[in-house]
Amino acid sequence: MRSIPELQQLIGLAVAEQRFPAQPKELYEPISYLMQLGGKRMRPVLLLMATDLFEGDPEQALPAALAIEVFHNFTLMHDDIMDNAPLRRGKATVHEKWSSSVAILSGDVMLVEAYKLLMKVPASVLEKVLKVFNETAVGVCEGQQIDMNFEKRSHVSIDEYLEMIRLKTAVLLGGSLSIGALVAGAPNPQAQLAYAFGENLGIAFQLQDDILDVYGDPEKFGKQVGGDIISNKKTYLLIKALETAKGDDLHSLENWLLSNEVDLKVSAVTALYDKLGVRTMAEQQMISYADKALNALQQIDAPQDRKQELEAFAQTLLVREC
Amino acid sequence: MRSIPELQQLIGLAVAEQRFPAQPKELYEPISYLMQLGGKRMRPVLLLMATDLFEGDPEQALPAALAIEVFHNFTLMHDDIMDNAPLRRGKATVHEKWSSSVAILSGDVMLVEAYKLLMKVPASVLEKVLKVFNETAVGVCEGQQIDMNFEKRSHVSIDEYLEMIRLKTAVLLGGSLSIGALVAGAPNPQAQLAYAFGENLGIAFQLQDDILDVYGDPEKFGKQVGGDIISNKKTYLLIKALETAKGDDLHSLENWLLSNEVDLKVSAVTALYDKLGVRTMAEQQMISYADKALNALQQIDAPQDRKQELEAFAQTLLVREC
User: Fold this and answer.
1) What DSSP line would sit under A276-298, residue for residue?
2) SS3 annotation, B169-227
3) Which of A37, A198, B10, B290 is the most buried (most CB within 10 A)?
4) Closest chain A residue by Cα to residue B23
C-alpha cells in the first residue's frame, strides 16, 4: 500500500499536469490558479486509499480522484463569491482577482470538467460512480444553501447544525470513499460502508474544525483563532452554549453577540464556553462520530493492514492542531 | 410521427410534473420558477424529433429532453447574473427576485439535475450521450465567455463572431439532436449528421435573431426592436457594417455608436444598414448555414417523411417573425 505522502504527491502531480485549452483564458486560467493554491488534497487521498483498501489500482482511480478535487475547488470558487471572501489560502479569490462573472462561469466549466474526468472510470462502474457523484453534488449544494440560511436565522438547533455539516462537508468525504471503493470493484454494501466511514469522519472533522477555531494553536492554525466568535458564526460551540447557558451567563453571551469588540469578545466568549463546558461536549460529539466512522471501517471486508492505514489517516485528521 | 405541438405538450407536461425536494426552498423554488416561465422548448423538441427520426420512442427520450431544457435554463439563470439582466421572458430574473447567491447555487444544482436526468437514457448509450453532453456544456460556457470578452473589445471579425455564436447557441442544438439520435440507437456517423444539422441550424437561427432585432415586426418581436443597436451589441449586422462602410458612412456609424440617443440612433443606424446592404449579407449567410443544415439532414439514413418533418420545423424556426 502506498503511503499518504506518496498519494498526495500523485495527486499534486496530476493537478500540475492538468491541461486546459488556452482560450478563452478567462475561463481556464482561474481553474489552474485555484487548483494550484494547494491544500491537503484530503478528499482525493481518501478516494485513492479506498481504492487501495479494496485492492484496486490507485493509478486507475486517479482521474476520479482528480474529479473530486476539481469538484471541491468548484464549490470553493462559487462559495467564495457568495461569502464575499477576499482570500483563499492566503491568496486573492478568483472573483477578486478576475470578476464575479469569471468566477461563476469558470466554476460552471469546472463542474463539467469533473464529470469529464469521472467518465474515465472503468465502464463497468460508470453508472454507479455517477449516481454517487450526483447525490454527493446535490448534497453539497443543499448544505451550502442551508448554511447561508443559518446566517439569517436567530435560532438553529444542534440537529439542524449536524445535518448542515453532514451535507456541506461530510457527504463529499463519503462520496470520495464510496467512488474509490467502486472503482476497485467493491460490491455495493462494501462501498456503502466506505461511504459511512467517510461521512461520519467528515462530521467529526468539521466539529474538530469548530473546536480548533476557538482552541487551536495560533501558531499552527491557518486562520485567525476566534474568527467564528468574532463573526457570530453558528458553530456547534455557540449553538450548544446558547442552549446550555442560563441566567447571567445567557445574558452575558447574548450581549457579547451584539458587541463589535474583537479581542475582548473572543476572550469573554471563550471563558463562557469553558465555564459551560461546551468544548467537552463538542469533543464528545466528535468522538462519537469518529467511533461511528471506525465502526463502519471495521465492518469492511478488507485486509486488516489496509484498514489500519485508513484508521491512522483518520486519526491524523482528527488530532490535528490546524 | 408526433406533431410538434404534441411534442411541445409532452415537454410542457414533463416540466410541470418535475418535482424537487421542498427544502431548502431557496435552492429549488427558483428552478421551478424559471422552468415554468415557458419558451418554445425548441431544444427538447429537436431532441425528441431526432429520436423519432431514427424510429426510437420519444417517451423513452423524454428524460434526456428534459435534461437539455434544465441545462438550457441553468445557462439562462447564470447568464442573467453576468449580464445583470432584470427580466427574463417579461418576469423578474432569479437573481433579482431572490439574490445572486441563490441564482448561483440554484443554477449549480440545475446542472447536476441535468446530469441526473441524463442517467435515465438506456444504459447501452449512456457513455456516448454523456460525452456529447459534456462537450456541449463546455462549448456553451466557452461561448458565453467569448461573448462577454467581445463587449470589451473594439474590433471583432465575422469569423470570430460566427465561432462565438456556434459555441454559445449552436452546439446545444447540435448536442440535442445528437443525443436524441443516440437514444434511438443511431450509429455514431448518423448521430454526427444529426449534430451537423443542429449546429448549422443553430447558427442560422442566431443570424435570424440578429436580423429580427433590427427588422422584426415590433408587434410580434418579444424584445424591443433595435435593442442591439441601442446597446452597440456586436452582431453580424454591426460587424459587417463596420467592415463594409467607408468614408462618411463609416464616420457616421462610428459617431452613432457614441450616441446616447435612442430613437434617432435606431433609425439612423438602420438606414445605414440598408444603404450598406448588410441585411442582405446577413440573410445570405443565414441561408448558407440553413443549406448546410439541410444538406446534413438529407444525408441521414432515415425515412423521408420523418426528415421532412424536421425540415419543416427548421423552416418555421428560420422564417419566424419573433
Assistant:
1) HTHHHHHHHHHHHHHHHHHHHHH
2) HHHHHHHHHHHHHHHCCCCHHHHHHHHHHHHHHHHHHHHHHHHHHHHCCCCCCCCCCCH
3) A198
4) A142
* B115 in A contact zone (CB under 8 Å): yes
What structural domains and CATH numbers belong to chain A?
4-318 (1.10.600.10)
* Chain B touched by A1 (CB under 8 Å): no
| Residue B270 CB neighbour total at 10 angstroms | 17
pLDDT, mean of residues A6-17: 94
d(CA A240, CA B313): 63
**E strand or H helix that includes residue B91:** strand B91-92
Q: Phi then psi for A87, rounded to 5 degrees?
A: -125, 150
Three-state secondary structure string covering A144-156: HHHHHHHHHCCCC
DSSP conformational letter for A168: I
Location of C-alpha cell 419543416: B312
Residues of B in contact with A171 (CB under 8 A): none
For A38-107, give the DSSP string: ----HHHHHHHHHHHHTT--HHHHHHHHHHHHHHHHHHHHHHHHHTT-SEETTEE-HHHHS-HHHHHHHH
Measured between beta carbons, the chain B residues lying within 8 angstroms of A134 are 112, 115-116, 119
Q: Decide if B137 touches A, using CB distance below 8 A.
A: yes
User: Tens of pLDDT along A104-117?
Assistant: 999 999 999 999 99
Side chain identity, residue A23: Q
Residue ranges of alpha helices (H) inside chain B are 4-17, 25-35, 42-53, 58-82, 94-97, 100-118, 126-152, 158-165, 171-183, 188-215, 227-230, 236-244, 247-257, 263-276, 278-299, 304-318
Inter-residue contact B110 to B31 (CB < 8 Å):
yes
Chain B residues touching residue A127 (CB < 8 angstroms): 119, 123, 126
pLDDT tens string B158-206: 999 999 999 999 999 999 999 999 999 999 999 999 999 999 999 999 9
Identify which of A114, A1, A3 has the alpha carbon closest to the alpha carbon of residue A68. A114
Provide the residue count of chain A: 322
Cell 471541491 appears where?
A72
